[in-house]
Amino acid sequence: MFKYIVKRLLISIVILLGVSIIIYFLVRLMPADYVDTKFASQLSQGSIDQEDIQRFKDLYGIGDNSFTGILSGYFKWLGNMLRGDFGNSFIHNKPVGQVIGENMWISFAIAVVATILQFLIAIPLGITSATHQYSVRDYVTTVFTMIGIALPTYFFAYIAIRLFSTELGWLPNSGLVNPSKNYADTFGGGMEKLGDIIVHLILPVFVTVILSIGGLMRYTRTNTLEVLNADYIRTARAKGLSEKRVVYKHAFRNTLIPLATLLAGILPSLFGGMMITEQVFSIDGIGNLAYNALRQGDIPFIMGYNMFLAVLTVIGTLFSDIMYSIVDPRVKLQ
Predict the structure, then answer these.
(1) Domain boundaries, the chain
(2) Superfamily covering domain 102-327
(3) pTM of the model
């Protein structure tokens, strides 16, 4: 196991290096960079000219877009990154690490709650759908989950906002707190603010859960059907065990084995934020910041954010492989 982990970590270094090269070149080859976006209005008004724009680009280190210039910029970024310096965000004028650290926790809170609810809902639905195959329950569950899979995030989010916020007025439709309240001036404002944040996060969590349970439910259903047709399940039934005991004691435990592979994607999703959901609900999470950084060409933040996700993905994949070998002794890590 130790040799396997060391080998995977060494391979991961090569993978992360390749990922950083691809991301850096793609960002540098974008049609418009941060300087072009920031000074576009002043350039159109004639208050600055192209020479001024070029000087600003040189100041930000993005003035030379030739292959050698981009390559030189990459190695400069790589050298700083190896020293733990991801640079300063162009937009926020702060170290990239600080910006990520300050804004990822609200995204983490949304993702953790949504992930827990996703598993609590999707796995029982998948099992009940499999144990009642081709029944009305199976068809209703399948249709419900397929709708969730098919709907785009922004479309379903706007439907939820229209229904629960605009029409019914039950829930707020954007932000994290009510802008009309000043919690610093109220006694016990901390708890009141926390309650306000929770209310504001109900819709984003609801949208995330509904749109994510479909895939996990179908995955659970398929695995359960495969396990229920196994020889040892027929043997358990032949011994006279109740159907409930067969399903939830013998089949359920083996159904969870393939779900261990899903751990690879959970870790980056917990910290990476939900770009579209946060954008629709105007939540200043890490996903929304990454979206704005991409639009404005904030190269240091884009690089730091994507490398952060790449490292989490590598760790998640390694953890998933190890967990798979633990839950299924037949798998050997070699």
Answers:
(1) 2-82, 102-327
(2) MetI-like (1.10.3720.10)
(3) 0.78
